[in-house]
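Q: What does the predicted 3D structure of Polysaccharide monooxygenase Cel61a look like?
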Amino acid sequence: MSIISKNVALAGALALASKAAAHGIVTGIVADGQYNLGYDPAFQYQRPPPTVAGWSIPTVQDRGFVTDLNGPDIICHKSATPGGAYVKIAAGGTLEFQWTEWPESHHGPMIDYLAPCPSGDCTSVEKTDLKFIKVAEAGLVNGSPAPGKWASDDMIANNNTWSVKVPADIAPGKYVWRHETIALHSSHEEHGAQPYPQCVNVEITGSGTNELSGGISATEFYSWTDPGIFLNIYYPALTSYEIPGPPLMEGGSSDGSEPSTPSPSSTGPPYGNSTATSTSTTSAGRPRPTGKPGGADKPTTTTAPVEATESVKPITKSPEATEQPPAPTGSAGEPPQGPPSPPTGGSQPPPPPPSKPDTPAVSFTSTFTGRIGKPTKFTCYLEED
């Protein structure tokens, strides 16, 4: 690639990043602990783009919302095309959808749908042929104080991750999973609600028998006058919320999410990562992919923490050494003002401790596997009075 071509691609990627920062999409899917790379608009500047299960939006350079509730864009996002791969998940398993940064002001429900692919192949399905069943939903958690706490707030609190159970009775086969949030911060205005639909190809395994008949097209889900679409979340404070869309399937999840405690230090793959990878994860936070490019079935080995090289005995102190005297107070229990008074009676402060202990040092080392990944040596000293 020439220098000019590289510069053009870089400029395009930077422009895309500046446009996309204010909205969100799903860039990662974890299926029962196995990470799968989702779609990112930055793939448009990669030759060739990675093959992923997430549906692509190759003609749109933003992460914005859909403006037509009844047009084809509401199915799987703007000008969306089918994903070229599948996320494998067992019926009854847990899917985690990892969103990019999400504005706290964009309160709203989290809704999940599932549609079988009529031809058995979701990579070439016509999206208007998909008939969806609602399998999970979650909306208002607490309406007071306004604008309240919403399912989307739970998603943000869970490291921008939403967890949902796959119905246990789903028949094995290939499906399109439609995951969506609807931002309601402007829903008091006409046509003000902002839907963000995301689609992922999933291959469900197991022995279920429910083939999800009787679904409807996503273009029939909503209208601008639905009480869950056209409402004011600011005044008065809401006491209830009617989640829009078709009714929830029998046995579906009415609270949608089962968030676990996120790991504040866990990080995911950088947005726009071109490597289709998979890895195991033990937290709801974004895992670090360990697969190789084009080889999700060949995970690499991560470095485990190194155990202490020597047996170290705990250092114990007498109760007198560990007990702290109460802090001095002034009148009425207030802390004393000014610096402490010097010792009186000619007494001198105790001499400083020796710079080197008389006893040999006991040391151990431990290697961290975080961003730095460098061994750190700790030295412990045993000192007698």
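A (community wiki): The structure tokens above were generated from the sequence. The longest strand covers residues 194-205. Residues 154 and 218 are 25 Å apart (CA to CA).
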